[in-house]
Amino acid sequence: MEKKKLIPSFGCKNGQAIIMDEGREYYSDDLVTLAQYYSDNGADALLICDLSEDDEDHERTIGLIRRITQAIDVPVIAGGRVQRLEDVKKYLYAGAAATYLNVSVAENVDLIKEAASRFGSEKIYAYMPGIHYLRHHIEEYAQLGASMAILDVMMDIEDIAALPASPIPILAACDEDIAGTIAAYLKVPSVAGVVLTVPEKLEGNCMRWKQELKKRGILTETFESSVGWEELKLNSDGLIPVIVQDYRTQQVLMLAYMNREAFVQTMETGRMTYYSRSRQTLWVKGETSGHFQFVKSLTLDCDRDTILAKVRQIGPACHTGAQSCFFTTLAEREYRDTNPLRIFEHVFSVIEDRKENPKEGSYTNYLFDKGLDKILKKLGEEATEIIIAAKNPDPEEIKYEISDFLYHMMVLMAEKGITWEEITHELANR
């Protein structure tokens, strides 16, 4: 059975979030913060409607979408200002997993086929502002290449329940009445998920909504332990230690303990919850400080007596204000760090430092001084060297040529303002 999706949505205009149903600003903080909130609290995707009215604001919105896709882990569906194929490309190149085309604009119907052919049908959705399009044209949109239909209009439960089988999944517009429309909509086989208009305050917790849906027999993406609490090996106090690690940097942040109630609450909310041995009570990490830990994965060790939690840490993990509780070195010996990404980031940071703080005699500064054409020329030469080396029997030679190419590629990245995080994020999307 396919898991149903909850997709919060908001418009974007002049750099501000807009309530989709009312067209007014409701959230004045950074849009990235808004997106992170829903990503951390159980959203399966975000839908962002570009409400810009001129090219300058359109480019600003594209930049915001790029920042959002780099900051969150759930897919972004973006659209709203598609006038030509180039606009589809802008949303997708900004990191959106899919873009939607408003089929009430006749030109966009024809554009669906071209966009699906160019970028893949899985990235193209048909946006329907009325039930008429769903009832009479859904077959056409599917044949043109749309892989999903977004119905941007509330429907009576009877109407949506009576919908015939759709050739493509439907995302239905919905309010946040968990006791009514969300559950009813999601029980319709052709409805893959609901698009929710986010509230004026940050009170919409999708993980909490999912627990309610679970009680109603609706399958959604939630944390479910593959091992029951009774199968864990607890210490003499009936607790299990939890090692907490940053999911991106892999830095070990802290050690804490869970009892059964803390374990269950962590699974239900997606926020790390522990048992305080000193206070003998549950505590949600960040409840007072705001430094929450949002679960990315929980792993049990071979003896089943320790949990490794990978989390997104908000702020510092340690009560001292340090990022990690492990900051006192007891003993140390120099060693070579061969973690690929850390090596790339270290070399890249040196290149960026040369750009900001030129050093006499530096080859890197020589390339920056000569400009983009020189960097591209060297990059082309190194690419050719790789091809030549690949034809030679000695595998060592290609290793050196690839290293030279990667160095020059990082110089180009620094010249164009592209980071490794952006590159790895794009690769992950693929």
Please name the fourth-level CATH homologous superfamily of the largest domain. Answer: Aldolase class I
CATH topology of the largest domain: TIM Barrel
**Total tally of structural domains:** 3
Mean pLDDT: 89
CATH architecture annotation of the largest domain: Alpha-Beta Barrel
Sheet-strand content, in percent, reads 15-25%
Q: What percentage of residues falls in helices of 4 or more residues?
A: 40-55%
In short:
The chain has helices spanning 31-40, 55-71, 85-93, 106-119, 131-144, 157-161, 181-186, 206-215, 260-269, 340-356, 363-370, 372-391, 395-416, 420-429, and strands at residues 5-13, 16-18, 25-27, 46-50, 76-79, 98-102, 124-128, 148-151, 170-174, 191-197, 240-246, 252-258, 273-276, 281-284, 293-300, 307-313. With 430 residues, the chain is of the alpha/beta class. Helix 1 (31-40) runs parallel beside helix 2 and helix 10 (340-356) packs across helix 13 (395-416).
Describe this structure in words.
Helix content is 40%, strand content 20%. With 430 residues, it is an alpha/beta fold. The protein folds into 3 domains: 5-215, Alpha-Beta Barrel (TIM Barrel), CATH 3.20.20; 229-313, Roll (Ubiquitin-like (UB roll)); 340-429, Helix Hairpins (Orthogonal Bundle). Strands 1-4-5-6-7-8-9-10 form an 8-stranded parallel beta barrel, surrounded by 5 helices. A 4-stranded mixed β-sheet has the order 12-11-16-15. It is globular and about 75 Å long.
